[in-house]
Structures are given as structure tokens and as C-alpha cells.
Amino acid sequence: MAESKIEWADFTFNPWWGCTRVSPGCERCYAEAWAKRTGQAVWGPTAPRRFFGDEHWRGPLRWNAAATAVRRRVFCASMADVFEMVRPTHPTDLALRMNDARQRLWALIAATPALDWLLLTKRPENVDVLVPMAWLEAWPANVWLGATVEDRRRAGERLVPLTRLKRVLDIPVVFVSYEPALELVDFRPWLANLDWIIVGGESGGGARPFAIEWASVTIAHARAAGVAPFVKQLGTRPAADVGGELVELVVRGKRTKNEDPNRWPEDLRVREFPRREAVA
């Protein structure tokens, strides 16, 4: 729980730490690596999760109390997936503890109407099973819902349930995090039911290449559909697609700094947020 270093959020909040890998985008998960560096063995189908005390949960209440005319965005969760469902055979009471934390999270969201909560998941098929029944009747005005998509297969698997929710529920913002982008994805079949798309390459040790053309194409398609694009980073290994081969880009003998947009191609310096109605 802290002010966020993620460019599209003001704060991050985690109801717990820990998760289980589900797809290629998880192979070099920054959250798993960070947990290991801090001595937390909380990743995997049989691993425990790290839970937190009351002081941790009071943080968003303070952010809400300090809110001004500008709404603040909370990314939930950077070190977990709120919509993860552990296996029934897990040898602990983990499922019960996670459910208790989720119920506390829903109550916290209701108690912080001045904050916009961005729930990002790789498991959108679980959303309507795990959110409160009241949300399915009247979705909270301060909850945005997003799914991570790293390749074409995951686009098909995750955007079908995500956009179905957009069609049947009055969700203020539905978004995609195309990060880490591992191949070119054509989002046009789903853009009519999306409000925002975040694009980013992979960073850190062992990062896989990211073709900057993937970002250019996504920006163009998003703008044509009235969807806000946001380029978060080019990753540790930005590349150009030369005849179907990814050739890494070099600037002054060094790889492009992914965290400095001033060093990116000008057309990729795009950081737009979705338009939305004011929240009372």
C-alpha cells in the first residue's frame, strides 16, 4: 500500500500478496520476483498468501479523506489477482482467508467514493462469481474493470468475458493492459466495448522483445474507435519489426530507456485517460 510508481495510477493497494501463474505473461512476473526478493514465498498453487493488518487497510480511507476535486486512481492489486480462485484441494484455509479479504475490499471500496478503484485481472471469467450480488444489479461508479492481454490467444480468452460484462453491466470504464505485449494483437473486434488500452513492453532481467510497431498499430486502432490509448513503457528490449524479424533498437550504444518517454519516438508519447461522467 503506497503512492504508486505506476504511471497510470496514483496509489496501489493489495488485499494480499501472492498468486499463481496462468499464462506466458506471467513467466517473468515482476510481482513474483519482488516477493521473492523480500523473502515472501507466496507464489504457486499450494503456496500461502501474505495478508495484512488494520493499519494497511486504513490507508485508502486516508486517501479518500484527503481527496480534492481531482479524482485519484487506485491500482488493485499490483501483487496479486483479486479474482484468483485457489484450488479446493489447497491444504490450508487459504480460500476462506482470501474470500474474507475480498469482502473487506468490497466494503473498503464502498467507503471510499472519492477514489476510482482499478481492478486488473487475468481471470475475468471469475468476476461475476466473486463480486457482490449488488454489483451485478448496480455496478459501483468508482470501480473500473480491466484484463491483462499479452498475446492473441489471451485476447480471445479474456476479452470475451470482459466485454460481455461491459455489455450487461453499467461499468464506467472497462480497460485492457496490453503488457507485457509479446506479439501483435488486433484489438478491433473488442474496441466497441472498451474505454481504455494500456500498452507496454516487458522490463527487467530476461525481458522479451517488444516491437514498437505493436504500439503504433494499437494507438491507431484505439483512436479510430474512440478508445483512449496509454503507452506505459517500451520495455527493456524495444525492437523494430523488420520483415517479421524483431531487431532491437539501440540509442547511443545503449538500449532505449523504457522509463523516459522523451527518448521514445514522438508518435509513441501517448498517455491518454478515458473520458467518463463525473462521479457524485
Structure description:
With 280 residues, this protein is α/β, with parallel strands linked by helices. The protein is built from 7 helices and 13 strands. It has an 8-stranded mixed sheet with strand order 1-2-3-4-5-6-7-9. A 3-stranded mixed sheet has the order 8-10-11. It has a two-stranded antiparallel sheet with strand order 12-13. Strand 1 (2-3) and strand 2 form a beta hairpin. The radius of gyration is 19 Å and the shape is globular.
Keywords:
280 residues; alpha/beta; eight-stranded mixed beta sheet; three-stranded mixed beta sheet; 7 helices; 27% helix; globular
Number of strands: 13
- Given the C-alpha coordinates, what overall shape results? globular
- Uncertain parts: none
Helix content: 25-40%
Sheet-strand content, in percent, reads 15-25%
Order of helices and strands: EEHHEHEHHEHEEEHEEEEE
| Average of pLDDT | 92
Question: Which sheet architecture does the biggest sheet show?
Answer: 8 strands, mixed
Give, in spatial order, the strands making up the sheet with the most strands.
Answer: 1-2-3-4-5-6-7-9
Q: Roughly how many Å is the radius of gyration?
A: 19 Å
Structural class: alpha/beta
Helix tally equals 7
Distance between the termini: 25 Å
